[in-house]
Amino acid sequence: MEWMAWTLPTALFFAAIAVMLMGMTVLELRRPCAERRGFLPIVTTRGDRLFIGLLVSAYLHLVVIGLTDWNLWVASLLSLAWLLVVLRWG
Amino acid sequence: MNKVKNNKAWWLVLPVFLLVAFSAVIPMMTVVNYSVQDIFDQSSRYFVGADWYRQVLQDPRLHDSLLRQFIYSACVLLIEIPLGIAIALTMPAKGRWSSLCLIVMAIPLLIPWNVVGTIWQIFGRADIGLLGASLNQLGINYNYASNTMDAWVTVLVMDVWHWTSLVALLCYSGLRAIPDVYYQAARIDRASAWAVFRHIQLPKMKSVLLIAVMLRFMDSFMIYTEPFVLTGGGPGNATTFLSQTLTQMAVGQFDLGPAAAFSLIYFLIILLVSWLFYTAMTHTDKQ
Fold first, then answer.
1. Which UniProt keywords are present, listed alphabetically (chain A) (predicted)?
2. The whole model's pTM is what?
């Protein structure tokens, strides 16, 4: 695995993604989701909302890095809040 | 009647899952790892956090090539989509001529990218190329190697020549799928050719058109070989698009960290646009 040049933060990042995907799989098996429409302008499944949440979070990080001097944790906390909002009400 | 649910079928997806993991996911994870480190060699690498992202996002070279890339993709779509539709509408619906047209239309699609670049590089040369020399003989000062506008026009015309067929063939398949009863109804209503196009053909082609737009956007947004062979990104940096800027960074300068950060930003742009197209397509299907 040395050739993959792992670091602790990237390992934690991918572990979090893997846990999220596994959690979604277990949740889907236990409580299959139905498509619904929340504040997003399209009908979405739970997986769609997770994808939208992660994609927007990635862009949010880029905006904070590229346009501001804020600490990256601000972007991460905002992303977490966004992810929860979009999963619950999206 | 209760539907039997058998999740064991998911095991059949395992081979493709492993293949994608091996060929795409693991290399992508490695790129993420590279993007947060300054790597000199296997044993000396240092964590730099988001520094490479900051550097790349504030790099005017990236801004310029991103702008060029969006203008290029927009031009490609604005030319190829209407032209492809127009060609598909004029192609014969059946008979010997339709087969001949389909074969002729498919020929440019069979030519490899670097060969297309080479063909147009020679074809457009101001001294010996048929196109370049002819234009100069007609008194039009044309030289794609030194004039920015000429280089852009040549790269665009080359792409139109190479890929409009794809749009035309997709539209043609969409048109052929329209049942005759729609045309019969239009004839009874004495609908004009424009009304038939606007209210029958265009709505029925919507799905294939979305696929065509998505394919042409993604391909043109990732274009590398043809402009690299034709103009080498010049004159100056006039036709240096994102892929070429990335290659210069990763292979030319061996700046692996910034190149990895650049790749991920590039990937995110393509991911967003592809998702928008996918959503538009599935939304259309649901309607």
1. Membrane, Transmembrane, Transmembrane helix
2. 0.85
